[in-house]
Amino acid sequence: MKLFAWLQTESASMLASMTDSILDSGASVFSFFAIRYALQPADEEHRFGHGKAESLAALAQSAFIAGSSMLLVFHSIEQLIQGPRLPSVNTGIWVSGAAIALTLVLITIQRIAIKHTDSQAVKADHLHYQSDILLNIAVIIALLLSGWGLLWADSVFAIGIAAYLIIGAIKIGSQAFNSLMDRELPEQTQQQIITIAKSVDGVRGLHGLRTREAGPTRFIQLHIELDDRLSLLKAHAISDCVEAELMKHFPAADIIVHMDPEIVAKVEGSITH
Asked: pTM value?
């Protein structure tokens, strides 16, 4: 539909919108298979699961989106220099309006899916498609301005749309890179983990907290400090309680709790505050 509109209008902003739609479709299909693979349980060759496949896919997508957006910028600048031609703007306006209507339907369906699944992937898509509505509105404004004689508006808006896509690609790529590099979970999340672990009866301190995220799975490792005189059976029971409490707040997490006598804190450093 947008291809037809672009051929009719030769609008750079419509080309940008069409490119965004194509990238969205390709990214959604690519993400579907990547997430499907990432959700596979751990096996003998991948003991930590397949979660990083999602990050690899996101990194590849961000590079592709950034490259395509740069081509859009070059095309728009060339059109701006040579002088844009817009044989017909009405087709582009109607197509963009239809795209907005269809996107609203999709967003409504996504809201229902989020309500039932609380899927992070669907939430991300939901946010992106919300921004697509603004993008299509921008295309309509650009076409209207061009129709009123401000022909430069089409190329300028196209460059703006391309810039928006590049910023989004950088954000996606940065998140994927951080995941691949095993960056720690946010400080707020780490503090939440510490608070939960210390709230368990018998835990006197905590140290050696390490966290990371791969796809939908969060990995949490920590050392809890216990009374030196506890039996191994009692210490293990407390460790199980800590793990159970953490699982309530991070149900998809992979948690390892190591038990240390309290005296170890003097050597390794304890989080007691």
From this structure: 0.62
